[in-house]
Structure formats: structure tokens, C-alpha cells
Amino acid sequence: MRMSARTHLSPAHHAHPRTPGEEQFALAAEILALLGDRTRLTLLHALAGGEADVSTLTEVCGAARPAVSQHLARLRLAGLVSTRKEGRRVVYALRDGHLRRLVDEALNVADHRLGDRPVHD
Questions:
Q1: Residue 21 has pLDDT above 60, yes or no
Q2: In a designed cystine with 100, which of 35, 39, 48, 58 is the match (CB 3.0 to 4.6 A)?
């Protein structure tokens, strides 16, 4: 039986391969700041499931269409999402799998934190 390499990696294998420089820290902080907005995080999570247009994304996140468009524009300008035209429709997609994993990990941390809450009477 063949197991994927990912199954057997220890947490140390997921660490950054070298000490990051100032530029990497600055860009990482910028990306994390973009993820710090609930609507943008919801949009990225939705796009992790596949491409979508503004109408679909508006339904998913429950925000007003102009707000969704503004958030998508910020994500596009930051290089986190890409766009393509389908007639008059603009379709959005995540730029890469690293971002999908980052969103998933942020949500996993939230799950663990919510699971660790003490029970109040």
C-alpha cells in the first residue's frame, strides 16, 4: 500500500526552508493582514472550492455586491486571486494552492480554539 509523502511529513518538514528576510516578513504580514478581514477570508474560502463570479460570491458571504467587488479588487491587486472573462462575467480563482492551505490552516486553528473553550454554567 502506497502512502502519500504528505501523510508522513513531520511538522518540521512544513517549516520555511531558510530564515526569511525582511522582504518575506513584510509580504507575509501584508498577506495575513488581507486575511484578517472576515469577508475576504470568506471569499477566499469560497474560492478554495473552485472558480466563482461576483454574484455567486455575494450569495456565499452575504455582503452587499459593491463591498464584495471591492474586497475582490483588493485581493486581485495583492495577487491573491486571478480573474478571467466569460462573456460579460468576471470569474475569480485563487492564484495558488499555498493560499488555499493558509486559509484552511487559519480555519483549523479557529476550530481548535473553539473546541478548547471552557464550558460556562
A1: yes
A2: 48
Mean pLDDT for 9-17 is: 55
User: In a 10 Å sphere around its CB, with 0-12 CB exposed, 13-18 middle and 19+ buried, how is residue 85 labelled?
Assistant: exposed
Q: What angle do CA 27, 15, 38 make, to 5 degrees?
A: 50
CA distance 103 to 109: 10
Q: How many CB atoms lie within 10 A of CB 1?
A: 2
Neighbours of 28 (CB within 10 A): 13
79-107: pLDDT as tens digits = 999 999 999 999 999 998 999 999 999 99
Amino acid at residue number 114: L
